[in-house]
Design a protein that fits this description.
- The protein is mainly alpha-helical and about 140 residues long.
- A hairpin with a 5-residue loop joins strand 1 and strand 2.
- Helix 1 crosses helix 3 and helix 2 runs antiparallel to helix 3.
- Keywords: Membrane, Transmembrane, Transmembrane helix.
Length: about 140
């Protein structure tokens, strides 16, 4: 099933979902792929600096945080069990190392998941992304 919608001029246009997700994952504009969507760690720019696509419509809310916790938990918990079973390190060393690992992985994934969610919303024309004044 293809993602088709009607734009402002009344014509049917496709917005490629996978491409928008990958551009968002790279923290780039889902429309042009070159302008940054974040102006700080997690603050979204109101418009793309390159193509002027409106980005303030996004409603990522708690989704990126939920996905980050889900992925980090599913990676680190089995790894923690495997390391403890194989090497049996001191619990303080194990807790310290895995705490740093969890925080580092979370800080890496959170803005990427936010960008990917913005890309999905843009591609599916959710929350006003279908009526923006930017190029489609």
């Amino acid at each position: 099933m293809q993602n088709t919608a009607t734009d402002r001029t009344g014509t049917d246009t496709d917005r490629p979902v996978k491409q928008a997700i990958m551009r968002g994952w790279k923290r780039k504009c889902p429309n042009c792929g070159s302008g940054p969507i974040l102006m700080s760690y997690l603050k979204v720019r109101p418009n793309c600096a390159v193509c002027n696509e409106e980005l303030y419509h996004q409603r990522a809310d708690d989704g990126p945080a939920y996905l980050t916790i889900l992925v980090v938990g599913h990676i680190m918990a089995p790894l923690l069990l495997a390391v403890f079973t194989a090497y049996q390190p001191d619990p303080f060393i194990l807790a310290g190392a895995f705490s740093v690992g969890c925080v580092a992985l979370s800080l890496y994934l959170l803005p990427r998941f936010k960008g990917a969610m913005i890309g999905i919303q843009w591609a599916k024309r959710m929350h006003g992304f279908g009526t923006g004044s930017g190029q489609n």
